[in-house]
């Protein structure tokens, strides 16, 4: 599709700003006035999950010091504050799939070199339970995986992980309950033999329980290294 056709299409189906949710001009993914309203991650950060930490003398956040981590490292675009919460709700529950392109574009602008250095073989999304997938119509983590794959050339494997049971929403639980809730809910039957390093995508990283459960399933299926890429990350516990 050419630029002229894109412009015509944008008149009828304009992209929405991931901050204020108003229509944005052709060629943009965010309103000029909304630039800077997200709280992007700044150092110092946890060397494992990428969460901001207040004490520059510490290498790891509280959660990563007190819970075993088998994924190698994680990066996230922004802190999960009020602006991020509204944006993710639109992306996750209200059909604003185009936000995924903005999130990945910004992640690659800031972390593209680091992602390239991981030399990943595949990108795998955190799976959604079939009942939730039917209700929403899409898996937001899958949109992120596809967009990251499209821009990097790393192949996505959308069915590498599956949820074996329906869990409570993690946002309703404390850290320990999240771990118990998710630890037996992820499975991976097998990975192609050439897949040894995986990038796992999701919208939000909170305590790390979901990322850890997915990592363990992927490692049982043959992955050696798992890295985590998310849009938002919670504050240090």
Shape, please? globular
Q: What is the total tally of β strands? A: 6
CATH architecture: 3-Layer(aba) Sandwich
- CATH level-3 fold name: Rossmann fold
Helix/strand/pairing class, anyone? alpha/beta
Which strand order do you get reading across the main beta sheet? 1-6-5-2
H/I helix tally: 8
Total discrete domains: 1
Order of helices and strands: HHEHHEHHEHEEHE
What portion of residues is helical?
25-40%
The level-1 CATH class: Alpha Beta
Compact overview of the structure:
The chain has 237 residues and is of the alpha/beta class. It is 36% helix and 14% strand. The protein has a four-stranded parallel beta sheet. Strands 3-4 form a two-stranded antiparallel sheet.
What does this structure look like?
The protein has helices spanning 3-12, 62-66, 82-93, 99-117, 130-136, 140-152, 175-182, 209-220; strands at 73-79, 122-125, 162-163, 186-187, 197-205, 225-233. The longest helix is centred in the middle third of the chain and has 19 residues, at 99-117. Residues 4-12 have low confidence and may be disordered. It has a single domain, classed as Rossmann fold (3-Layer(aba) Sandwich), CATH 3.40.50. The strands form two sheets. The protein has a four-stranded parallel beta sheet with strand order 1-6-5-2. It has a two-stranded antiparallel sheet with strand order 3-4. The chain contains eight helices and six strands, in the order ααβααβααβαββαβ. With 237 residues, it is an alpha/beta fold. It is globular, with a radius of gyration of 18 Å.
């Amino acid at each position: 599709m050419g630029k002229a056709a894109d412009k015509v299409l944008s008149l009828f189906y304009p992209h929405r700003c991931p901050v204020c949710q108003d229509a944005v001009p052709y060629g943009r993914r965010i309103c000029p006035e909304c630039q800077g309203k997200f709280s992007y991650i700044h150092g110092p950060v946890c060397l494992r999950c990428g969460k901001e930490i207040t004490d520059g003398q510490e290498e790891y956040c509280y959660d990563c010091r007190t819970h075993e981590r088998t994924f190698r490292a994680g990066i996230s675009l922004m802190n999960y504050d009020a602006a991020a919460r509204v944006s993710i709700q639109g992306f996750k529950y209200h059909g604003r799939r185009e936000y995924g392109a903005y999130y990945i574009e910004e992640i690659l602008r800031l972390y593209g070199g680091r992602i390239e250095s991981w030399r990943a073989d595949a990108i795998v999304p955190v799976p959604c339970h079939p009942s939730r997938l039917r209700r929403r119509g899409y898996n937001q983590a899958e949109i992120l995986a596809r967009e990251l794959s499209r821009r990097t050339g790393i192949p996505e494997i959308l069915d590498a992980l599956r949820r074996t049971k329906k869990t409570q929403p993690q946002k309703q639980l404390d850290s320990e309950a999240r771990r118990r809730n998710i630890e037996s809910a992820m499975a991976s039957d097998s990975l192609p033999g050439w897949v040894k390093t995986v990038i796992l995508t999701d919208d939000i990283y909170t305590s790390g329980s979901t990322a850890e459960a997915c990592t363990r399933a992927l490692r049982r299926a043959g992955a050696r290294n798992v890295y985590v890429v998310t849009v938002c990350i919670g504050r240090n516990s």
